[in-house]
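Before a colleague's protein record goes any further, I have to sign it off. What it holds is a sequence and that sequence's fold in token form. My question to you is simply how this chain folds and whether the tokens agree. Thanks in advance; the entry in question is below:
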Amino acid sequence: MPTPSRPFVSIVMPALNEERYIGEAISSILPLSDDLDYELLVLDGGSKDRTQEIVRQIASRNARIKLLHNERHIQSAAVNIASEACDSRTAVLVRADCHAKYPAEFVARCVDTLGRTGSSSVVVAMRAVGFHPKQKAIAATQNSRLGNGGSQHRMAGQSGYVDHGHHAAFDLKTFRALGGYDETAPYNEDAEFDARLVESGGRIYLDGSLTIDYYPRSNFRALGTQYFRHGWGRANTILKHGKMPKLRQMLPVLVLFGCFGGLALVPLVGLIGLLPLAFYLSACLAWAIGLAGRARDFCILLAAPAAVVMHMSWATGFLTRMLDGLRQRLGRRLRDLLSRSGTASEGRVR
């Protein structure tokens, strides 16, 4: 057997009720190169479907695949558990998603990019792919600026150093040194980790030549829940690191304020108050018509309601966390004031 010329890699795949996707995800990400040695750790968070059975079947044919239990359930915990339970030879940690299909030799190419660029983390581009009308419309929305706001990791072909992207590979020593993902927040752990990585002097490289196919949520209810969590997590990261949000991140919040503010003014200004909502809905519909025309697929017209669900859910999640953070800060300040007041009163009595 040839001697591996690349470092040993542990591929980590968090899973929860992924019977529909996990077989293809594992099949597409398994390395084929003889000069790369690896293990694949599937961290299951308590699946109730056939996920574990499918993994065991695949593992029976490949001893490098192992099924582990994620008793803490969330994705961030899965990666942290794997970073400690992985093979002692591991130098690179690769994070994989069940809702994805990976290009050929994805792991080897991530490892090569990590070494060539001298970065601490490699992130990749992501393209959403759908199978039925709603999922196709949701995918089309996520692939467009209407849905992604121009995020760099949504633009295949663009490479370079970035502040954040879709996580693919880490230098294991760096990941451990930073304490891994923050498990105190259930969402947005990737962006929060990237903020700490950059603050510590680490570098993140976006390899635009590595584009994964991502399978988005297939109905609007699940999509709304996902984007509420995205917005909540982004606000949590901003609060934790004290950074100003980007303009593209605030646009959904501004749209939400504009639409509901106009509706609140209808009793005072009449139908004029409906203009912000009408303009927003018209813009989403016009964008959806454009996407459907280019794709020559009428089902893409559902991109209009998909965009509304994504924007409004994200904004609601964002505001929920920001308001909660404000309440917590005001509470701490009030307690500090009361504590100092009590101390001063005690001093006067003495």
